Amino acid sequence: MCTQRTPYNHSEKLYEKHSETISMYLQKHVLPALKGKQPPQDVFLLKELQTRWQHHTIMNKWMREFFMYLDRYFVKHHNLKPLSTAGLTHFKTLVYDECKTEVADAMLIIVDTEREGNTIDRTLMKQIVSVFETMGLGALGAYNSDLEEPLLVSTRNFYGRRREEWIAVDSTPDYLVKAEKALNQEKERVGAYFNLSSESKVLKVCEEELLENCQTTLLEKEGSGCKVLLSNDKTEDLERMFKLFNRLDNGLVPMAAIVKEFIESVGMSHISTREAKIKAAEAEENDDPDFVKALLATHAKYVDLIKAHLSNHPLFQQALKDAFATIMNNDVGSTTNAELISTYCDRLLKAGGEKLSEAEIEHYLDSIVELFTYLRDKDYFGEVFRNQLAKRLLNQKSASDDLEKSMISKLKAQVGSQFTSKMEGMMNDLTTADEHDKLFKDFQKLPSETDKCPLDTSVQVLTTGNWPSYKKPELLLPKAMQPAVDQFERYFKGTNEQRRITWMFSLGTVKVKATFFGKEKKSYDLELATLQGAALLAFEDGEELTFEELSQKLDLKTEVLKPVMHSLCCGKFKVIAKNPANNKVKETDKFSPNAKFKNNNKRVKIPMASLDSNVNTKKVEEDRSVNIDASLVRIMKSRKTLGHQALVAEVLEQMVLFKPDARAIKKRIESLLEREYLERSENGNNVYNYLA
Fold this sequence. Notes:
Elements: H1 11-35, H2 42-66, H3 68-77, H4 83-115, H5 122-134, H6 141-169, H7 172-193, H8 199-210, H9 215-220, H10 226-231, H11 235-245, H12 253-279, H13 289-309, H14 314-328, H15 337-349, H16 358-372, H17 378-394, H18 401-415, H19 417-444, H20 482-495, E1 509-517, E2 521-529, H21 530-537, E3 545-546, H22 547-554, H23 558-569, E4 576-579, E5 590-593, E6 603-605, H24 617-639, E7 641-643, H25 644-654, H26 662-674, E8 678-681, E9 684-690
Family: Belongs to the cullin family.
Keywords: Isopeptide bond, Ubl conjugation
Pfam family, one: Cullin_AB
């Protein structure tokens, strides 16, 4: 029938008959059967459609097999639809288009039934979904428009109702448990019988309805919001909250803001406690280990929380950083937080300080360096730390050189070698000083030197530039002490002709064997500062001296001699008697050896207040000026010409150790203009040129 020439070729009639046969069957048998299944017979409608679709698939297949010759030649040569496609098209036009809305509605009712917790026939649903997919004739157009779009609307409506129900009665954690369960169920449901391309769209609708549209309410809910979870350490609930809100675009921003605010409030509560203690005189203003420990514990707690339960997300890292930047730069009283954490470092590194193992101290040092990074005035911490390091090293109070070097290396890793160069120089000086001392001991054993100094003398030679600046009182040494100084100077001149030494008598120590002739003769080994020892030896003859006579004898100024004598006659160990006997040293006082001095210990250490203030703030300010000047010159040398605002902004960006205010930078610019490093541009007063 198909191979004859016209008019005996019947291909066209056969093709038409193929379409008529399928169309007639669909109109007479399939469509009436489906139209008879209306709601509430939703399942029956789907089952009928599934049966009719299976029959149509079989019929379409065999019709194509019977008339394959048409497909091979006639269809191809006349650009017609292949028989299989034609059969599907008839089903789409005559059946699918007539009942697709009712079928989709029936499916959505069944989906909601399953969402309510009932069991449904998922195989049937998957088979009906395949009908929608096939009706796209090679694409998903029919599925997307006829099933997916109504599904998204239905999903939005369902979870919109659920949201209102849940949020009215549930706490935030309970609500989030339900929301998480719903999202997991929707994902599993799409995988079970919908097209996988719908997954992201369905989940997005659920996220919008269950999370985005009530995010603020959930985060701030009284009694169970984010702050309450943080306060009660509900880490599991916080982790769930993080995971759910992380699904939203910028969904973590509000949560991170609350975390920052909460951490800040915890830190500020520690500051308030410290303030109250200072007012009640329960805490020393310049040393508060409990306060520092509280800050360290708070920081460690929320670092661990962010790492373990908030995926170490950058937003929460920044929240922690911002919160602690506020906390660490909020000082109470006259002592800054920089001083307090440095003083706590001093306790850790000082022999006899905190009773901790070396590993524990290392852990604490790491934590302190983390707090240090939040300080705005890192240079001030550096100056305090350097002063305390110097005291530990000079007084041989350091618990471990390895720990000292470890701390310095930690600071160096954070802010660079310029910050720690002097500290490293101090450590190196001590190594060199030990070598000097060994050589000096050998020098003392020379035949020409053995009889010249009977004292056991040890000298530390230090580099002036590495160490903090100290007062250098001129002291007229007693005859008993002078030979030791003379001998070391002979040794040093012989080995270091180009270098000059300056004696720092305010830093040295001396051991004096003192015998007191009271009712009974008693001897003590006194450990003293060099200045105390010199003052004590002035009374070797047992005579009474006035303040002025003592000042002349030692060649010490009043402001130096007063604290020295106060330590000897007004402190715990009164080895010198003062007339009149009171706790204040005046220039009219008279002094004599205290024949009544007694102590149960043979060895007595007499402390003395330092002649130097803890931190040279003037030096810090000078160093800042130098740093700002250097930064300005570097920038202008590179840029040649730059406006005032841009120059200030670049300087602020470069300043790592401290954050100067705009006025300080302007002052340094004026100074550079006066010294002709810069000039004002002809284009305007707010533009500068670099002068080579």
